[in-house]
Write a structure and sequence with these properties.
The complex is a heterodimer of chains A (496) and B (352). Chain A has 14 helices and 19 strands. By secondary structure, chain A is α+β, with helices and mostly antiparallel strands. Chain A folds into four domains: 65 residues, MutS, DNA mismatch repair protein, domain I; 147 residues, no CATH class; 99 residues, Dna Ligase, domain 1, CATH 3.30.1490; 93 residues, no CATH class. Chain A has a six-stranded antiparallel β-barrel with strand order 14-15-16-17-18-19. A four-stranded antiparallel β-sheet of chain A has the order 8-11-9-10. A three-stranded mixed β-sheet of chain A has the order 2-1-3. In chain A, strand 1 and strand 2 form a beta hairpin. By secondary structure, chain B is of the alpha/beta class. In chain B, helix 2 links the parallel strand 1 and strand 2. A six-stranded mixed β-sheet of chain B has the order 1-2-3-4-5-6. Helices cover 49% and strands 11% of the residues of chain B. Chain B starts with 21 loop residues before the first helix and ends in a 7-residue tail after the last helix. The chains are: A alpha+beta (496), B alpha/beta (352). At the A-B interface, strand 16 of A face helix 6 and helix 7 of B.
Chain lengths: 496, 352
């Protein structure tokens, strides 16, 4: 799908979205279809089909020349974007894939599943259809993303083998000749191969087959060669003796951060994403990524954020190279600090927010902001902790409860119709006598949102019980017209 | 005493505010047994003629009124008590509209004071605060016993408290309060249309409208019994709606078309002026003396004109022709002018 998506994205609206579209390239002397969009696939087109046949099958077919160079270039740019936004170790995988090492980076997005959702969601917004999977090994993730059932899938750790077993042999990244040969022998699924003796297979098909099998099951390491754009600001340190102790790592992190911050300062930049990559002696790579709410280049703060995550680095037999990269930078000018004699500077919360975000994920930290809506459940929304106020505000002279229940809880009452407050109500098994009440405040459904809200009405009352506790209760419906609600009573909030 | 009277009703002539036409409002009012209803559009009397016709058809008495939104943020409902007050109100609105340009109206409190005679004024308050007290004091000073304060249920928090505080505030300033309903549409189902026109007025979409929507609920017509139930604590405010209705006896039926006058000499009536001008014209035309046949024809014509009371019209034609002769030289243009004039008046009669 990548060539089609790229073409549609870059060409704008030129090939109409509903017309079937196919890309055509050359296979030796024949012109063949190299890719087809979903509409064309529905009509029976497949990659590898001769163009003449495709045109005979689909009369109104739109044909565009395939451009593998442009596809690869765009894919490289996409990989760079993924690296800046999601994970430090990213590489282009084949002609239509991107492989990501999510270790040490998923925490910023609130877990692996959330990270994949965010990634595919962002891609879908920009018109790229993506399938994604996270698994224990690169080979397994490759197979599950391309041949698995769900478009977004996170394999539980240690359960790769049963998941891979039902997938076809193509999922193993084998040359077509080997797949054909295995088919001739009666093997069609990965599960068929796992129990077989290795020696005859190797003799017949060469070492490639067993290597791919081991890579898929994670018994053979397969490092990712990450893309490293030249223009990124990087500090690198190679050690004569491999290091392993946490204190040593912390000391060198401090030195790397100092170097990096000097480079950042020279260019007037601050860092939003910072990657620490540790190359181990056994050729494994350990990464730590930290994200910042605002551009920063304060060495102490960056060092502390990195050192908070030293525990996630497994040094193994020792680390021989450490690289610190400012993956995403933003301009940061020097500012005159406010003089304490004249004014109190606004407290800077970004340090606290960064520390928390790198521990529990940026999504778990938010601020509530008013949303212009009369319906209480919709009058609040979450915004990033350092976002500006949205300009909306609640009318301040209307009392609202300090605590709003997540969903209204049904209560039993006795009340006169149509617009009297109840005499008593019982909530969570406690019966309360209503001493004072104010209301009704009539709130209408937002009819433009759902059909069910077209005539819906709630009558809210503030009531006070014998002990002086105040509650916000409402009756669904206006007390006269049965269409406006069930006329049942609910408790929605508690005044402080 | 008359029963409950709706005193604050916005028809669709308050452009992009009201959601129901005068016909719908009066038909509904008649069905509910409301004896009289006022139409108070914002800064306009444009809807009054429609409302007059609709009220006659529905058998409900129309009380002529208008809501004035002053530049200082004060909103006053005014009702002319007699014809003279009606003309003053018209002149006041013309002044405001001429000042602000198309579609708007700019009026200051001082303007209202200048044209206040014969008008009943009802202050539309927001909160019972100092601003409201200040406005009440000013209103009392200018309108005396013709000043009232509107009590309106909003179906918002502290409603009853607000009404009570407002009525206390009014009492302190010697102003009587009156119950109104602030009608925007004739039946509850029109609320959606109201939201849509509000969105158009703010040139935004329904989703983005947010808190710019009409914040106060239940703006539809309610039967008198329901109003009596809602204003159970303020029976005197309800009764005063009838009192205002009794005081505002002005009706559009009192208006007749008034032809502008073109008399040079105010001592003479139009008919005498015309006879005088005809005599002069005949003398110029027949310098040797007017033939008896012509004299008889002129006398006959003048009698006819006198009977039909057409003299002012001929005076208008005369003054236009005179103006044409004076400012545009050349008979051709003069003839063109006269033809246009005759076509405009739909009558083909030679001028003097």
């Amino acid at each position: 799908m990548w060539p089609i998506d790229r073409l549609r994205r870059q060409a704008g609206a030129k090939p109409a979205a509903e017309a079937p579209l196919a890309l055509v390239g050359r296979d030796r002397n024949r012109r063949v279809v190299t890719a087809a969009d979903p509409a064309a696939k529905m009509l029976g087109l497949r990659a590898g089909m001769p163009v003449t046949k495709a045109q005979a099958l689909v009369p109104g077919l739109v044909i565009e020349p395939a451009d593998p160079q442009a596809d690869a270039k765009s894919l490289g740019r996409l990989a760079l974007w993924v690296m800046q936004r999601f994970s430090p170790i990213v590489a282009v995988d084949g002609a239509d894939g991107i492989v990501i090492d999510a270790t040490g980076a998923a925490h910023l997005h609130g877990g692996e599943g959330a990270m994949l959702d965010a990634l595919t969601g962002r891609l879908a917004l920009s018109g790229v259809t993506a399938r994604a999977a996270i698994a224990d090994s690169r080979g397994a993730a490759h197979a599950l993303a391309r041949y698995g059932g769900a478009p977004v899938f996170v394999a539980p750790p240690g359960e790769t083998a049963p998941l891979l077993a039902p997938l076809p042999l193509q999922a193993l990244r084998l040359p077509p000749a080997i797949v054909m040969g295995l088919h001739d022998l009666g093997f069609s699924r990965i599960g068929d191969l796992t129990g077989q003796p290795r020696a005859p297979l190797t003799r017949r098909f060469g070492p490639e087959l067993c290597r791919r099998l081991d890579q898929a099951f994670g018994t053979l390491a397969e490092p990712i060669e990450p893309i490293r754009p030249q223009e990124l600001i990087t500090a690198r340190r190679a050690f004569a003796e491999p290091i392993g102790a946490a204190e040593t790592i912390a000391r060198y992190i401090g030195k790397l951060v100092a170097t990096l911050c000097a480079a950042l300062e020279a260019r007037g930049l601050g860092v939003r994403r910072l990657d620490l990559i540790c190359h181990r002696v056994d050729n494994q790579v350990q990464t730590v990524r930290i994200g910042l709410a605002m551009p920063q280049r304060d060495p102490a703060r960056l060092t502390r954020l990195l050192c908070d995550r030293i525990e996630t680095i497994a040094p193994g037999f020792g680390i021989e190279i450490m690289t610190l990269t400012a993956t995403l930078t933003e301009p940061l000018r020097l500012k005159q600090a406010a003089s304490s004699l004249i004014e109190n500077p606004a407290p800077d919360l970004s340090g606290l927010i960064d520390t928390l975000a790198n521990r529990v994920g940026a999504k778990a930290i938010y601020r509530f902001a008013p949303q212009p809506s009369d319906v209480p459940e919709r009058s609040v929304r979450r915004i990033p902790p350092l976002a500006e106020d949205m300009g909306a505000n609640w009318p301040d002279h209307w009392p609202r409860p300090a605590r709003l229940l997540p969903r209204p809880e049904p209560i039993e009452t006795m009340a006169l119709l149509p617009d009297h407050p109840p005499n008593w109500f019982s909530w969570r098994g406690v019966r309360r006598h209503v001493r004072r009440a104010d209301g009704p405040e009539r709130i209408f459904g937002e009819w433009w949102k759902r059909d069910a809200e077209q005539v819906a009405v709630r009558d809210y009352f503030r009531v006070e019980d014998d002990t002086g506790a105040r509650f916000w209760i409402f009756r669904a419906g206006d007390g006269e017209n049965a269409a406006t609600g069930s006329h049942r009573w609910f408790l929605h909030g508690i005044f402080g | 005493m008359t029963g409950y009277v709706e005193l604050q009703v916005t028809s669709s002539f308050s452009f992009l505010r009201g959601a129901s036409s005068a016909e719908e409002l009066f038909t509904r009012a008649a069905a509910m047994g409301i004896g009289a209803m006022a139409i108070t559009d914002r800064n306009t009397l444009a809807g009054i003629v429609r409302a007059h016709v609709a009220a006659k058809e529905a058998g409900v008495r129309l009380i002529v009124g208008c809501r004035l939104d002053l530049a200082c943020g004060m909103a006053v409902l005014v009702y002319p008590m007699d014809r003279a007050a009606w003309s003053r109100l018209c002149r006041l609105l013309s002044l405001g509209k001429a000042r602000a340009g198309k579609g708007r109206c700019h009026l200051e409190w001082a303007d209202l004071v200048a044209y206040a005679e014969g008008l009943i004024a009802v202050l539309v308050p927001d909160l019972p605060d100092e601003t409201c007290g200040l406005r009440l004091r000013r209103l009392h000073k200018v309108f005396g016993n013709r000043a009232y304060l509107a009590l309106t249920l909003r179906r918002r928090p502290n409603d009853q408290m607000r009404l009570w505080q407002l009525s206390q505030l009014a009492q302190r300033h010697g102003i009587r309060s009156v119950a109104t309903n602030d009608i925007l549409f004739h039946e509850p189902a029109r609320r959606m249309l109201q939201d849509v026109v509000t969105a158009i007025r703010h040139s935004t979409t329904i989703d983005e409208l947010g808190l710019q929507r009409e914040r106060h609920a239940d703006r539809y017509l309610k039967p008198p019994a329901e109003m009596a139930r809602l204003f159970a604590h303020f029976p005197e405010a309800l009764a005063r709606t009838g009192e205002i209705a009794d005081r505002c006896r002005f009706s559009l039926d009192e208006l007749r078309y008034q032809y502008p006058e073109e008399r040079d000499d105010p001592a003479l009536s139009p008919q005498e002026t015309l006879a005088h001008l005809v005599g002069e014209g005949a003398a110029t035309r027949y310098p040797q003396g007017v033939p008896p046949k012509v004299t008889a024809a002129l006398r006959h014509e003048l009698t006819l004109i006198g009977r039909l009371n057409y003299a002012p019209y001929f005076l208008t034609v005369n003054s236009i022709v005179r103006f044409a002769r004076y400012s545009l030289s050349g008979a051709r243009i003069g003839r063109q002018f006269r033809r246009l004039l005759c076509a405009r008046h739909h009558r083909h009669r030679p001028g003097p």
